[in-house]
Amino acid sequence: MLAAWNNLVVPRLPGYPGSYVVANVAAAGAVLAAARWAGLTWAELGLSRGRLPAGLRWGGACLVLVAAGYAVVLAVPALRPLLTDARVDGMDGGELARQALVRVPFGTVLWEEVAFRGVLLAALTRLVGVRAATAASAALFGIWHIRPTLSGLAANDLAPTPGAAVAVVALACLATAVAGVFFTWLRLRSGSLLAPGLLHLATNSMGTVAAFVAQRLS
Predict the structure, then answer these.
(1) Angle at 6 between CA 21 and CA 140, to 5 degrees
(2) Global pTM?
């Protein structure tokens, strides 16, 4: 259901892409309500108030590291092409702010962290244990990114043949699944969704800002 939501359902919603944020925030609320109704605790979902300080420490450290990484790439002209993304072409300051401060935090990070490192991980852990739950949620997180990867390839004209597109999408999904394992480790180590959420936010929002800046520096 989760994989179908991102790859098939959301792009067909009325008003898409304008409806993206509202739909995903509503979905996050719905799955949280369902999880609580099913008996999952706030602690199992990574939303215990007592674990927020630990989540902030771990997530904050990751955020600083990501910011430093982007700063280094921007500071070295030879590395700036690594940030090339045609999706920022023609983007003004207002659209950049909307992407980095609204669409990514609420439409992407909130929904994905609640769904994968919150509800799905907690439910699967009760059924099959932590290791299997981590593997399953990470694999599904990779599959979740098929459509976004295809969109990015099309926007940047990076896969001229169907075979190349399949290969790149497969590698991107594998990389995303590996990232999902690390996000889950952060969630379990800190006991809070805030830790992977801050890393996820830093990677995506700062990545958009960095691509925007790199384009204007080139």
Answers:
(1) 125
(2) 0.93
Domain parsing of the chain, residue ranges: 2-217
Do residues 179 and 185 make contact, with C-beta atoms less than 8 angstroms apart? Answer: no
Average the pLDDT over 46-53 and give the result: 97
Asked if pLDDT for residue 170 goes beyond 80, the answer is: yes
> For residues 85 and 67, what is the distance between their CA atoms, to the nearest angstrom?
18
The pLDDT tens digits of the residues spanning 70-86 come to 999 999 999 999 998 88
Taking the C-alpha atoms of residue 61 and residue 4, their distance in angstroms, rounded to an integer, is 33
- Supply 101's token pair: 């401060």
Residue 161 pLDDT > 80: no
User: What does the DSSP 8-state code read for residue 78?
Assistant: G
Which DSSP helix (H) or strand (E) runs through 173? helix 162-190
Cα 55 to chain centroid distance, Å, stands at 17
Burial level of 109, CB count in 10 A (0-12/13-18/19+)?
Answer: buried
Given the structure tokens 């990867």, which residue do they identify? Answer: 149
Query: pLDDT value at position 159?
Result: 67
